[in-house]
Amino acid sequence: MGVLLVSKPYMERRSFATARKVWPDVEILCASEPLEFDDYLTFIGDEKLVLDMLVGDLQRVVEYPKRGFAVEQEVPEGVHAAYESLVRDGFTSRLINP
Q1: Per the domain annotation, does 96 fall within a domain?
Q2: Owning domain of residue 78
Q3: Most buried of 29, 41, 89, 97 (most Cβ within 10 A)?
Q4: So what's the pLDDT on residue 1?
Q5: pLDDT of 15-29, one tens digit each?
Q6: Quick check: is 98 in a domain?
Q7: Residue 6 domain-assigned?
């Protein structure tokens, strides 16, 4: 049995990790509209909102396994550093309380 998850491009990792936690023995395939970052920014029309969403989603990739909601995934050091920089710069409206 398999599951096809369709999400926003930036949510694929979190969707996969959550599905893997819920269905550890199911084949999971993630898909999203093939959309360049600049095109997504234009579509949404609010750069701060997009960065807030990306920062919030990465926080969930890191935090949800600690809460039992998803499987753990490796996040590269450079990605962590970029996340911390964006949080310091105020892209925090989509963060959950740690």
Answers
A1: no
A2: 2-88
A3: 41
A4: 79
A5: 999 999 999 999 999
A6: no
A7: yes
Q: Are strands 27-31 and 2-6 parallel, antiparallel or unpaired?
A: parallel
Note whether 41 and 67 are within 8 A (CB).
no
- Label residue 97 by pLDDT band (50, 70, 90): confident
pLDDT at residue 98 is higher than 80: no
Residue 60 lies in a domain: yes
Concatenating the DSSP letter of every residue in 47-94 gives HHHHHHHHHHHHHHHHHHHHTTSS------HHHHHHHHHHHHTT--TT
**CB-based burial of residue 84 (10 Å sphere; 0-12 exposed, 13-18 middle, 19+ buried)?**
exposed
Question: Facing residues of 31 across strands?
Answer: 6
Task: Please give the torsion angle defined by the CA atoms of residues 29, 13, 67 and 26, in that order, rounded to the nearest 10 degrees.
Answer: 10
Structure tokens at 13: 């990792």
Give the SS3 label for residue 28. strand
Q: Could you tell me which of 9, 4, 66, 55 has the C-alpha nearest to residue 35? A: 9
Number of domains in the chain: 1
